[in-house]
Automatic annotation (TrEMBL):
<feature type="binding site">
    <location>
        <position position="98"/>
    </location>
    <ligand>
        <name>Zn(2+)</name>
    </ligand>
</feature>
<dbReference type="GO" id="GO:0008270">
    <property type="term" value="F:zinc ion binding"/>
</dbReference>
<keyword id="KW-0479">Metal-binding</keyword>
<dbReference type="GO" id="GO:0015976">
    <property type="term" value="P:carbon utilization"/>
</dbReference>
<comment type="similarity">
    <text>Belongs to the beta-class carbonic anhydrase family.</text>
</comment>
<feature type="binding site">
    <location>
        <position position="42"/>
    </location>
    <ligand>
        <name>Zn(2+)</name>
    </ligand>
</feature>
<dbReference type="Pfam" id="PF00484">
    <property type="entry name" value="Pro_CA"/>
</dbReference>
<keyword id="KW-0456">Lyase</keyword>
<dbReference type="GO" id="GO:0004089">
    <property type="term" value="F:carbonate dehydratase activity"/>
</dbReference>
<comment type="function">
    <text>Reversible hydration of carbon dioxide.</text>
</comment>
<keyword id="KW-0862">Zinc</keyword>
<dbReference type="InterPro" id="IPR036874">
    <property type="entry name" value="Carbonic_anhydrase_sf"/>
</dbReference>
<feature type="binding site">
    <location>
        <position position="101"/>
    </location>
    <ligand>
        <name>Zn(2+)</name>
    </ligand>
</feature>
<dbReference type="InterPro" id="IPR015892">
    <property type="entry name" value="Carbonic_anhydrase_CS"/>
</dbReference>
<feature type="binding site">
    <location>
        <position position="44"/>
    </location>
    <ligand>
        <name>Zn(2+)</name>
    </ligand>
</feature>
<protein>
    <recommendedName>
        <fullName>Carbonic anhydrase</fullName>
        <ecNumber>4.2.1.1</ecNumber>
    </recommendedName>
</protein>
<dbReference type="InterPro" id="IPR001765">
    <property type="entry name" value="Carbonic_anhydrase"/>
</dbReference>
């Protein structure tokens, strides 16, 4: 038995359970997807979009990268936003960070992690934008939590400033951009109340 055989066993059980509850679930879903939500979150394995929202396949369109970044030159993220907004017509874009984010923490220490240092540089920019506020927090843990929140808020701004969202707004499309932060320690999502 190979080391990944259990993945296929798990998958069969999962598909079976859903089919028992809703016999034509997969058949219907295979025809089309109509998610109302676009989730832009961290790649961290502890922050799974569908599960923590209690949502089934088909209900949330997902993009994840390290430290939930929305960078104006990242064609991958921009393509996801464009497709979600213009084709799927999602009603909500959620940027979700999390406390204890390895990417956010790594951006604030002096170690080198290789290629990813270039990616994390964007979070160092967030630090620079909010340096006074962050430096005023003397407790390291609280300062990092604040940086996780400020990072989400900056990415919400970045989403709003894309031509995709601007064009959608001008065309009168109903769409709201939200900033959430997830607590690994209790599984609870917090709304940063920066919805635009
Ligand atoms: Zn993270």
């Amino acid at each position: 038995m190979s080391s990944i055989d259990h993945l296929f066993d798990n998958n069969k059980k999962w598909a079976q359970e859903i089919t028992e509850q809703e016999p034509d679930f997969f058949q219907q879903l295979s025809q089309q997807q109509t998610p109302e939500y676009l989730w832009i979150g961290c790649s961290d394995s502890r922050v799974p979009a569908n599960e923590l929202l209690g949502m089934k396949p088909g209900e949330v369109f997902v993009h994840r990268n390290i430290a939930n970044q929305v960078i104006h030159t990242d064609l991958n993220c921009l393509s996801v936003i464009q497709y979600a907004v213009e084709v799927l017509k999602v009603k909500h874009v959620i940027v979700c960070g999390h406390y204890g984010c390895g990417g956010v923490h790594a951006s604030a220490d002096d170690n080198s992690y290789g290629l990813i240092d270039n990616w994390l540089r964007h979070i160092q920019d967030v630090y620079r934008f909010h340096k006074d506020k962050l430096d005023a927090e003397t407790d390291h843990g609280k300062r990092m939590n604040l940086l996780c929140e400020l990072n989400v808020i900056e990415q919400v701004n970045n989403v709003c400033n894309t031509t995709i969202i601007r064009n959608a707004r001008e065309a009168g499309q109903d769409i709201t951009v939200h900033g959430f932060v997830y607590n690994l320690a209790d599984g609870i999502l917090k709304d940063l109340k920066v919805s635009v």
